[in-house]
Write a structure and sequence with these properties.
By secondary structure, this protein is of the alpha/beta class. Helix content is about 40%, strand content about 15%. It has two domains: about 220 residues, YjeF N-terminal domain (Rossmann fold, 3-Layer(aba) Sandwich), CATH 3.40.50; about 270 residues, UDP-N-acetylmuramoyl-L-alanine:D-glutamate ligase (3-Layer(aba) Sandwich), CATH 3.40.1190. It binds ligand NAX and potassium ion (K). Its EC number is 4.2.1.136, 5.1.99.6.
């Protein structure tokens, strides 16, 4: 399990550790790790062109010390100082190692731009966990110039401009190829928009672990998911493996039903019971003969469908009066329910639907979450963590917020960030598949929190496999491809 922390938590741990070590030890450790990573990224250290962007704080200090280490190995290092002051020790060491220094406020702008664009490696030491609010000038201009860098951009601790505690980006921010982060992963490195500025995340241990608190955000690894997934034993039968009920689709939207059932079937449900109007039932029967189907008359509830251990409610079911009555019938059951898509619209209109004893998992994208909370979706995208937590608290449910970073929030537990997502997943119908997967896991006896976070992981993995790896040439995926790839994704997970 990967644990992530706020800036304040990291600082508190640093204070504890620093009190037990000679002055400057931690920065030395950090700079040594940073220099080693940078050396590995340069085609050749000797003669390599390195630009160090140094802010006025300790983040700049790390970068200057690391620059000095590279200069001692023969790299041609230029530091560009963004602050009115710079870390004294780091600057002195860089100068002694033969590094050159320019000041962003007074130096030749064209020359500095040229240095950044043509460097083999740019180290972003503008701001780390001490960064606050949108980057001011000249920090912002330097961060912007990094986009044009032809060489590799290495963020020191945090890409400057990204809020280390939340992943929020209020203005200009560095887009790094690699981020070397010290002591522990910061929350903002896992959550978009911050996460998409990180590049390859490279944690470097400086010994903080014993002083870190319980994390507020965590991410499951493949081994964590493998250890949690239900595996059939010799005693298993379809009922023990879990019966998922799916209420989805309508005469207008039949595809959502096929995809949701597909997600559940391919993720290993013992049995899927599908209930809807005649047209989606016909489509589901044709595509998934494994499913047991029931045709519901308009306004009819789920009374005759048979026993299930968890329901998936919503994809393509419509939002009219009959759909509302059906939703009430499903949410009136005493088993866990996943509410997705149209189900979320119904719940946003009538929150009384959520008053129930059994657990509920909502799976909104940011637009749907916006409707649930009465907040524009742009605000949610800019501050995902805050809104995911707020939704879980306000609605007293487990919430899985879909999007470029999928988050699972439940009151009293760390938020789980999913790391397997891929931009290829941003295509119609993939959410239906995700709801089906979560349904299969929930019916097998997992909690909403575990089922949601494991489903997000497996869903992302299946999408990546369907899209092909970077080496193989990537391609767009369709939602059904993701469902079909699920067994391979599940097979690839091994308990570590
Ligand atoms: N505290 C420690 O023991 C250690 C700290 N380390 C480094 O120290 C960093 C934290 O250092 P600091 O607390 O000095 O803070 P930072 O260096 O992260 O940030 C403060 C600097 O950024 C500038 N700044 C902040 N927000 C800005 C904005 N919006 N626009 C323009 N400039 C802005 C400030 O003026 C100041 O110069 C960590 O991220 C890490 O890189 C490491 O050396 C490991 C050990
Ligand atoms: K930085």
């Amino acid at each position: 399990m990967l644990s992530a922390y706020t800036s304040d938590e990291i600082r508190a741990a640093e204070r504890e550790l620093m009190a037990r070590l000679p002055d400057g030890t931690l920065m030395r450790r950090a700079a040594t790790g940073l220099a080693a990573t940078c050396a590995g990224l340069l085609p050749r250290v000797y003669g390599g062109r390195v630009v160090v962007l140094a802010g006025g704080g300790d983040n700049g200090g790390d970068a200057l010390y690391a620059g000095a280490a590279l200069a001692r190995r023969g790299a041609r290092v230029h530091a560009i100082l963004a602050g009115r002051t710079a870390h004294e020790g780091g600057l002195g060491e860089l100068r002694r190692a033969g590094g050159r220094v320019a000041e962003a406020r007074s130096g030749d702008a064209v020359l500095m731009e040229d240095l950044i664009v043509r460097a083999d490696l740019v180290m972003d030491g503008l701001a780390g966990i001490g960064g606050a609010g949108p980057l001011r000038e000249p920090y912002a201009t330097l961060a912007r110039l990094c986009r044009r860098a032809e060489g590799v951009v290495v963020a020191v601790d945090v890409p400057s401009g990204v809020d280390a505690s939340t992943g929020e980006v209020a203005g200009e921010a560095v887009r790094a190829d690699v981020t070397v982060t010290f002591g522990a992963v910061k929350i903002g490195l896992l959550i978009d928009p911050g996460a998409s500025h990180v590049g390859a995340l490279t944690p470097f241990d400086i010994g903080l672990r014993p002083w870190l608190p319980e994390p507020g955000v965590v991410a499951l690894t493949g081994a964590d998911v493998a250890a949690r997934l239900p595996r059939p034993g010799p005693e298993s039968d379809k009922y023990r493996r879990g019966v998922v009920g799916v209420v989805a689709g309508s005469d207008r939207f039949t595809g959502a039903a096929v995809l949701t059932v597909g997600g559940a079937v391919r993720a290993g449900a013992g049995l899927v019971r599908f209930a809807s109007s005649a047209e989606p039932v016909a489509r589901v029967r044709a595509r998934w003969p494994e499913a047991v189907t029931t045709v519901l008359a308009p306004g009819e509830g789920i009374g005759e469908v048979g026993r299930v251990q968890a329901w998936v409610l919503g994809p393509g079911m419509g939002t009219g009066e009959d759909a509302h009555a059906l939703a009430r019938s499903v949410l009136g059951s005493d088993v866990p329910v996943i509410v997705d898509a149209d189900g979320l619209t119904l719940v946003a209109r009538d929150r009384s639907l959520l008053r129930r004893e059994a657990p509920t998992l909502l799976t909104p994208h940011t637009g749907e979450l916006g409707r649930l909370l009465g907040v524009p979706s742009g605000e949610i995208e800019a501050a995902r963590l805050r809104h995911a937590r707020r939704a879980a608290e306000e609605l007293s449910v487990t919430v899985l917020v879909k999007g470029s970073t999928t988050l699972v929030a439940e009151e009293g537990r760390p938020v789980r960030a999913n790391l397997t997502g891929t931009p290829w997943l941003a295509t119609g119908g993939t959410g239906d598949v995700l709801a089906g997967i979560a349904g299969a896991f929930l019916a097998a006896g997992m909690t909403c929190y575990e089922a949601a976070s494991c489903a997000a992981h497996v869903h992302g993995l299946a999408a990546r496999m369907a899209a092909g790896g970077p080496g193989e040439g990537e391609a767009p995926v369709a939602a059904l491809d993701v469902a079909l790839e699920l067994p391979a994704a599940l097979r690839s997970l091994t308990v570590g």
